[in-house]
Amino acid sequence: MTVVELARPRLVTRPLLLRLVSIAGSAVGFYLPLSVVPMLAGSSGGAGLATVALLVATVVVELLTPRLVARAGYRWSLAAGLFLLGAPTVILAFATAPAVIIAVSLVRGAGFAICTVAGGALTATLVPVERRGEGLALLGVVSGVTSLIALPLGVWAAGRWGFAPVFVTTAVCTLLALLSVPGLPGRAAAAPEGHGLRAGLRTPALTRPALIFAASTTAVGVIVTYLPLAAAGLPAWVAPAALLAQPAAATVARWLAGRLGDRRGPARLFTPGLLLAAGGTAALALVDSPAALVVGSLVLGAGFGVLQNATLTVMFNRVPAGGADTVSAIWNTAYDLGMAAGAMAAGLIVASVGYPATFLLTAALMLPALPLIRLDRRAAR
Question: Which of 192, 140, 191 shows the shortest CA–CA distance to 311?
């Protein structure tokens, strides 16, 4: 046992610690105003449009980022992403017209896309293959802890002090993370022949886990946009508590899934992760119950965290060295496309069917991913 432990490669290095700083900065930049911007937009339709603009821009730019990373390298790409994510947020402290909100959301979405794809690929190069699940979980914990603080804190701070302090704080924290970028590796390894983005999108071994994960991100897109509105008639603590419970559970579950996945195989965690996410989302239909909103968000977060780590680890395991950019782009696109689809679909139906039915429909739409899990398991064998 002692010999095995000593033979394990070192996980925490100086570049990895610096990467944690940029992860925290981009998480603050994304999550602190995530539910505040829909509140600023006002109506349900406007709230959904702001979130969709953010996520659609994210998805489009994520597909372009591998080419940017190949040309500019990790450092310049990550610096550009942090700047675009943070700096435009200040504008919302002074201008609140719908067109301004949409424009700022589009630019921020582009910045977040670059941060996630370039940063995700860089992360894969900093983590030993033998400890990939654990390493990705560690970075997920940093991102998760930051988001679990930032997401509800933004809603609470906006209610207490107004919108402007939230937006200014977002910009400052995100731009400060630029100080960590010069210490990171500069260049990306070229994708091996036949393993670029286009080839990856035609590879079921990569697209299946991405689609399974996207099934759970639809629910996250719905709750970050509409849960504060659904809980408007409840005590003021309910929405922040529920928005805290979801990323808190995701962070813990992601860490446990990383350790368990390295030992038992990450693909085995797909089914329990999906069922937890669907069950938690269904519980949110009890919108008049503070306990149901908090517990439902907690269970959803647990399933989401399991799928986050398991799907990403499986995808990295299925590409050769140099294919990290492709995996990062596909996985992050699935993440944000699922969130955008959830927010957009909910925006179209919530006014006519109400919040309870919207949450139930969101849960039901996750279940078709179960046959995809079985298909992926058979193909892997």
Answer: 140
Tell whether the model's pLDDT for residue 262 goes beyond 60: yes
Question: Tens digit of pLDDT for each residue in 71-87?
Answer: 888 899 999 999 999 99
Q: Provide the angle, in degrees to the nearest 10, between the axes of the packed helices 98-126 and 132-161.
A: 160
Q: Are 128 and 135 in contact (CB under 8 A)?
A: yes
**pTM for the predicted model, two decimal places:** 0.79
So what's the pLDDT on residue 136?
Answer: 81
Torsion sign across C-alpha atoms 334, 339, 340, 346? positive
**Secondary structure letter of residue 91 according to DSSP:** G
DSSP conformational letter for 192: P
Helix-strand-coil split of the chain, %, nearest 5: 85, 0, 15
Spatial CB neighbours of 65, under 8 Å, sequence gap ≥ 6:
77, 113, 114, 117, 118, 325, 329
Report, at the CATH architecture level, how domain 10-380 is classified.
Answer: Up-down Bundle (1.20)
Residue 4 — very low, low, confident or very high, per pLDDT cuts 50/70/90?
very low
| Residue appearing with tokens 């894969």 | 124
Is the CB of residue 68 less than 8 Å from the CB of residue 118?
Answer: yes
Is 347 in contact with 45 (CB distance < 8 Å)? yes
* Distance in Å from the first CA to the final CA of the chain: 30
pLDDT tens track for 29-59 = 999 998 899 888 875 556 678 877 887 898 8
Indicate the angle between helix axes 132-161 and 290-317, nearest 10 degrees. 140
Quick one: tokens of 108?
């921020």
Look at 26-30, 66-70, 145-149, 368-372 and tell me which has the smallest mean pLDDT: 145-149
Q: Long-range contacts of range 99-108, CB-CB < 8 Å, 24 or more positions apart?
A: 101/37, 101/40, 101/41, 101/46, 101/50, 102/49, 102/50, 102/53, 105/37, 105/50, 105/51, 105/53, 105/54, 105/57, 106/53, 106/54, 106/56, 106/57, 107/57, 108/29, 108/30, 108/54, 108/57, 108/84
Domain boundaries, the chain: 10-380
Distance CA 377, CA 375 (A): 5
